């Protein structure tokens, strides 16, 4: 009696295709992130990165016994002078890394950011596999790992990589709890959701809607509002951030001065504001991807998860309404939108793959080619951008300036609020406000007398430093006052110093 040969399930289900695509996705994603790895971290929102660099260095120098006392004191002072909004987790981890390697090497925080983003990618793949299947998940992961904007963002010394990974893992643990509602899964879901909000409180707009959606679409849970597991998850979700904010606002007080210029309700009345918001989405994550991902969420088969993903988009909209100024001026506020767009695209891809006729081998081969070329083009664009954004001369330039200005009281127009001079030159200065600062204050309803503010800022200062000549030219009135009333103390390649005495 003849027996039919058994088909290999691995090949029958095209598992080889999943593994091949995962290898390609992580190859392009990681090689792109490690390209130009030792360039100073000024290629993405340098002001925000330098803020973290000063904090981490101060933490490191605080316990560096062989450092010169004056230098250690200055490093700690710079750290303590920086305002704190979210817990300095990335800064503390970087300081531990500095101690481990014996140097404040800026490649350490860059590696940590890449590491957390990659962990988030792994978690996102498992989450999308639960929601739409592993074939669609691979294509959603390609968006998350290889799109240029997230690639740049995930190299930066900010909490965003850790925050995004924490959001993704909280979604995943919520899904796992919804499938198996035991106490262990409830504790894990609550802890991970609480961690995400603790890392950066605005993540509540991405975490809370997901949890609420899962609870209210589950018929067994909605029957009672006192379900003990739901209450446990809710308590663990809010507790860490609640303790942090009570301490920051009412006990230690370090958050009391950090709430200014956060909310601009007048922007919400301006139709042009929403066009700007659309432009920011388009320039960072792609408006077409954004719209397709919302459509993709509609085809997720399991109702609780479909509602969960759609609710996260609603949470993003509320997030943008609350942070109306930052959503159009700080493009890194789009970063937590990246994984949910990936989920929506994965759902679209899963439907497409499901509709492929026959054994799907030819269709998957075509998808492989298309995805490969899309990733290759994005990888090359990111590589060229990083290649041409060279900052290796900045540390030396500002170190020399710091020596020139060591014994003087200085006010400056320099990039990033004087942070480059403070970090590499070890020279804190008073930074004169930029045109953007004036615009923001006017939007907040403040009436400013620029001439009076400038005269007040010059009092007691000996030198006026200019290294940001584009900003210097934008403030023609300030430029005229300095050129007509104060002699040049020293001028060189990339800097101009006026004598104020």
TrEMBL record:
The yes or no answer to whether the keyword Transferase is present is yes
Glycosyltransferase RgtA/B/C/D-like domain residues: 87-243
Tell me which InterPro entries the record gives: LipidA_mod_glycosyltrf_83, RgtA/B/C-like
Q: What is its main location?
A: membrane
Q: Name one Pfam family in it.
A: PMT_2
Enumerate the UniProt keywords alphabetically.
Cell membrane, Glycosyltransferase, Membrane, Transferase, Transmembrane, Transmembrane helix
GO MF annotations for this entry? pentosyltransferase activity
Q: Which GO terms describe its biological process?
A: lipopolysaccharide biosynthetic process
UniProt-annotated location(s): Cell membrane
Do the record's keywords include Transferase? yes
What this protein is called in its record is: Glycosyltransferase RgtA/B/C/D-like domain-containing protein
According to its UniProt entry, this protein's organism is Candidatus Brevifilum fermentans
């Amino acid at each position: 009696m003849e027996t039919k040969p058994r088909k290999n399930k691995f090949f029958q289900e095209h598992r080889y295709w999943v593994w091949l695509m995962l290898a390609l996705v992580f190859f392009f994603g990681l090689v792109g992130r490690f390209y130009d790895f030792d360039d100073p971290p000024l290629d993405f929102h340098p002001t925000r990165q330098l803020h973290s660099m000063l904090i981490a260095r101060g933490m490191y120098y605080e316990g560096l016994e062989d450092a010169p006392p004056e230098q250690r004191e200055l490093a700690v002072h710079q750290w303590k002078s920086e305002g704190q909004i979210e817990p300095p987790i990335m800064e503390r981890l970087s300081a531990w890394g500095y101690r481990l390697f014996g140097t404040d090497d800026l490649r350490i925080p860059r590696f940590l950011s890449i590491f957390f983003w990659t962990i988030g990618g792994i978690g996102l793949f498992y989450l999308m596999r639960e929601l739409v299947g592993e074939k669609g998940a691979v294509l959603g992961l390609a968006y998350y790992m290889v799109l240029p904007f997230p690639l740049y963002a995930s190299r930066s010394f900010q909490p965003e990589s850790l925050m995004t990974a924490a959001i993704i893992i909280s979604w995943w643990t919520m899904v796992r709890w919804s499938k198996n509602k035991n106490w262990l899964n409830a504790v894990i879901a609550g802890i991970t959701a609480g961690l995400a909000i603790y890392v950066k409180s605005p993540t509540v707009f991405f975490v809370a809607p997901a949890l609420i959606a899962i609870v209210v679409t589950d018929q067994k849970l909605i029957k009672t509002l006192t379900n003990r597991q739901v209450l446990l998850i809710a308590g663990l979700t809010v507790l860490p951030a609640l303790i942090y904010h009570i301490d920051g606002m009412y006990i230690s007080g370090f958050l009391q001065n950090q709430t200014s210029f956060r909310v601009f309700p007048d922007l919400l009345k301006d139709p042009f504001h929403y066009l700007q918001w659309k432009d920011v989405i388009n320039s960072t994550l792609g408006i077409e991807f954004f719209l397709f991902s919302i459509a993709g969420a509609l085809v997720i088969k399991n109702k609780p998860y479909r509602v969960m993903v759609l609710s996260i988009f609603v949470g993003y909209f509320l997030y943008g309404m609350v942070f109306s100024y930052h959503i159009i001026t700080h493009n890194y506020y789009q970063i937590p939108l990246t994984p949910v767009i990936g989920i929506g695209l994965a759902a679209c891809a899963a439907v497409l793959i499901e509709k492929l006729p026959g054994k799907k081998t030819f269709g998957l081969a075509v998808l492989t080619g298309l995805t490969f070329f899309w990733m290759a083009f994005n990888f090359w664009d990111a590589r060229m951008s990083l290649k041409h954004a060279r900052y290796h001369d900045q540390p030396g330039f500002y170190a020399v300036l710091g020596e020139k200005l060591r014994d003087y009281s200085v006010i400056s127009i320099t990039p990033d609020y004087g942070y480059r001079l403070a970090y590499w030159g070890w020279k804190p200065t008073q930074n004169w406000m930029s045109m953007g600062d004036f615009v923001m204050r006017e939007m907040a309803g403040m009436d400013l007398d620029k001439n009076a503010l400038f005269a007040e800022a010059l009092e007691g200062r000996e030198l006026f430093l200019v290294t940001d000549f584009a900003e210097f030219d934008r403030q023609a009135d300030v430029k005229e006052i300095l050129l007509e009333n104060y002699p040049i103390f020293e001028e060189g390649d990339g800097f101009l110093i006026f004598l104020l005495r």
